[in-house]
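Batch job 17 of 40 flagged for manual review because the log was empty.
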Amino acid sequence: MAISYARARLTTEDDRRYQAHVEKFKLQRKNQKAIRPPRQRDIFGGQAEAALRDWLAAHLPLDERRILEYEERRHRTAQIKYRELDALAIIDSVAWVFEIKASRTASAIRRAVAQLNETRQILHLLFHRVGVTILLVDTGIPADSAAAAALMASDRPPPRRPEPLDEVLAALPQVQRIEDLAARSSSGDQVNLMLFSVDDIIALVGAENLALNWEDDDLDDEAEDEPPPEATLFASSGDDDDDDDNPLAAALRKAGLK
């Protein structure tokens, strides 16, 4: 199905049209069944995103217009949608977009690349050059297939084999690891990737300000035979460790909010 985009604009979270869209979404979700409370990893994901956004703000002039409104056209139908950019900087007419994730599987990189490719396509309606960067907090990603095999053979293996970092990077040549923001590129279809450790996030905000008690979460993962129920609009950004996007992100995109 051919998809195209039109009528893009950047706005802030207090934009009237965006707020009306959010309220409509919340009303649609109001009568949904009760959901589980957010896990520690979910809470940490939101905290890590906030910490890295503040870190970015100390290095780049971030734009407050992080809400991207656009029209998505499929055949003869069109729908106004919104997506929240984790961070945006506009420098010398170049739009720099940052996608922030926390995960224990490199599959998060695949999802981030897909999201950023779409975002870049939409922003090209507004900017000639768009650079995209993934800021990934590694919460236990195996480095290679041997590390993944060892994890699955451990006393408490995860429910699914996590994709190792080297496998994903080999499959996605457009992704280029960088060690410093100054090394990022806006050329072609390149996606920049910066890795952060949990210790890096602790150094930024302090362990006392982070949800780090993940043991119960891991036990819940072992007990879960069914996918978790969809989250509400108020759920925190979470650990992006499932084969599919986290329920909140999927729900928001379906509603045209991501």
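Reviewer: the log was empty due to a logging misconfiguration, but the result itself is present. DSSP finds eight helices and eight strands in the chain. Unflagging and moving on to job 18.
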